[in-house]
Amino acid sequence: MQQPLIMTPGPTYIHEEVRNALSQSITNPDLDPKFYTFYKETCETIQELFNTKNEVLILSGEAILGLEAACASLIEPGDKVLCIDNGIFGNGFGDFAKMYGAEVVYFQSDYRSAVDVEKLEEFLKDQHDFKIATLVHCETPSGITNPINLICPMLKKYNIITVVDSVSAIGGEPLETDKWQIDILLGGTQKCLSAPPGLTLLSISQYAWDKILNRKIPIAGFYCNLSQWKNWYEEKWFPYTQPISDIYGLKAALDRLLREESYLERHKKIAEAVRKSLVYAGLALYPLDGFSNTVTTINIPKGVTYQQIFDTMLKEHKVMIAGAFGFLKNKVIRIGHMGENCYEEKLYITLKALDKVLRKFDIHLKGELHKLFVSFL
Length: 377
Ligand SMILES: *Cc1c(COP(=O)(O)O)cnc(C)c1O
Fold this sequence. Notes:
One of its GO terms (molecular function) is alanine-glyoxylate transaminase activity. Belongs to the class-V pyridoxal-phosphate-dependent aminotransferase family. Its cofactor is pyridoxal 5'-phosphate. This is Alanine--glyoxylate aminotransferase family protein. The radius of gyration is 21 Å and the shape is globular. By secondary structure, it is α/β, with parallel strands linked by helices. A 7-stranded mixed β-sheet has the order 2-10-9-8-5-3-4, sandwiched between helices. A two-stranded parallel ribbon has the order 1-12. It folds into 2 domains: about 5-10 and about 260-375, Aspartate Aminotransferase, domain 1 (Alpha-Beta Complex), CATH 3.90.1150.10; about 15-260, Aspartate Aminotransferase, domain 2 (3-Layer(aba) Sandwich). The longest helix has 19 residues, at about 265-280. It is built from 13 helices and 13 strands. The two termini are about 30 Å apart. The chain binds pyridoxal-5'-phosphate. Pyridoxal-5'-phosphate (PLP) binds near residues 140 and 188.
């Protein structure tokens, strides 16, 4: 049977080069010195992707592990954490901080817009006594990219540790970890990197390491304890057996992406054409600004439900798109244009299917979505 085209905002399509790497024969990653070199080289490739000289680690666990590991390793009970919140992931970061005993203060910004930088600047003038701030680069459920390039330097003026969830932006949006002063940047593999889910990538600044290694109260837990990783290369010691096949796959995916010099332009160009075609046809996007280059979130028009769109897309056109969760459940549909899925032909097929499905439910569209898309490229 023909496989459906998976156009959700992650997991994304995995290229043959990556699948072949995943099936390579393995060695003993704890004992083979070559694996330590390979792991280090993979970290160096990630440094290139992140634009950072900070130390990079690959953790065995989907990206949520990165969020939790950052909180577990940095937060001591009673620490004040600023949670910058303009969406579901931003808000949820505060819950992780609370789990580790933080006293969380939320800076809330309109959920349909990128974080309001001027209001945040005003807020920080009054209140800046925070050890850590958490923020999200791309709010995947709403399809909004936040100006972390402006926000992080603002936080660093007050010596606040910046922890950024860039899971759905890495590889699809510009990223300057060192220039933007991001202390901990974290990402996953199943979004724009187009490798299978299962790993967290993160970079840690010297400032963040100093805080992690000089706590008064020891870190509770083992898997989330980043200090276990200090000196892994010098001592040729991993805290646990590495998921070697997944790391082979990740390296192949990174090499594939970085070989292409214009991957950021590709994401921008495709995303813009997707949005323009939807808006021209008369559909409404959920975000009012801060449009993401990796995912587009569309308000469901009156007269059709999420379930009808999802089911008909999949059954009649073999294309899978996503809805959302939390307060956006049944209100929006989302098309991912991430990594291997961010190509003209895949969006053409997706928009053609969406066009047919919406017409089937008598939704009026001005022009045909897929033809508009091509005209806007
Ligand atoms: C995908 C994603 C994660 C990882 O979450 P899952 O629900 O496990 O996929 C974390 N943060 C953001 C912003 C994401 O888009």
